[in-house]
Amino acid sequence: MRLWTVHPQYLDAQGLVALWREGLLAQKVIAGETRGYTRHPQLTRFRQHAEPLRLIAAYLRGVADEAARRGYQFDETKIVSRQSAAQLVETRGQLLFEWKHLQAKLRGRRPELYRKIKNLDCPEAHPLFRIIAGNVRGWEKTAAASRQKNQRTSTRIGRM
């Protein structure tokens, strides 16, 4: 599951559809309607807010707006809340981490789109987010965090 901080305008069609499905899944998880993905790190920033369902609904509306701009028809009746939500604060480090991640995906999947965006230093954020200074979030699964986890696991196994 990836709930991009990056504006959905940068996603290819495959990525936009996947984001919509993952956002709907996130909405179900936050609403307590599923037993899977309940501890997914991408949901941390939504769950830390007083009104997480309104936030994920606002996130989905941003995705649906981009889809409509492209001529797609996502079923917006699946969004549980129509009330507006305040913006969610996110860090520039998180935005840029995700930007590099998206660029890597597009480099392989849609090289022509990658060539159009590769020289953009800092993308726009999804409309839900207000970007502030800061590093990649602690809940993000980075390569460095994965290496540390693997090192701890191999150390424990070595002690057995």
Please outline what is shown here.
This protein is mostly helical and 160 residues long.
Q: How would you describe the overall organization of this protein?
A:
The protein contains 6 helices and 2 strands, in the order αααβααβα. Helix content is 51%, strand content 5%. The longest helix is centred in the first third of the chain and has 18 residues, at 13-30. Strands 1-2 form a two-stranded parallel ribbon. It starts with 12 loop residues before the first helix and ends with a helix. It has helices spanning 13-30, 44-47, 52-69, 92-109, 111-117, 143-159; strands at 88-91, 129-132. The chain is mainly α. It has one domain.
Task: Map the helices and strands.
Elements: H1 13-30, H2 44-47, H3 52-69, E1 88-91, H4 92-109, H5 111-117, E2 129-132, H6 143-159
Parallel strand pairs: 1-2
Number of helices: 6
- Approximately how much beta-strand content do the residues carry? 5-15%
- Average pLDDT confidence is 90
* Percent in helix: 40-55%
Briefly note the structural class of the backbone: mainly alpha
- Straight-line N-to-C gap: 34 Å
Oligomer: single chain
Tally of DSSP β-strands: 2
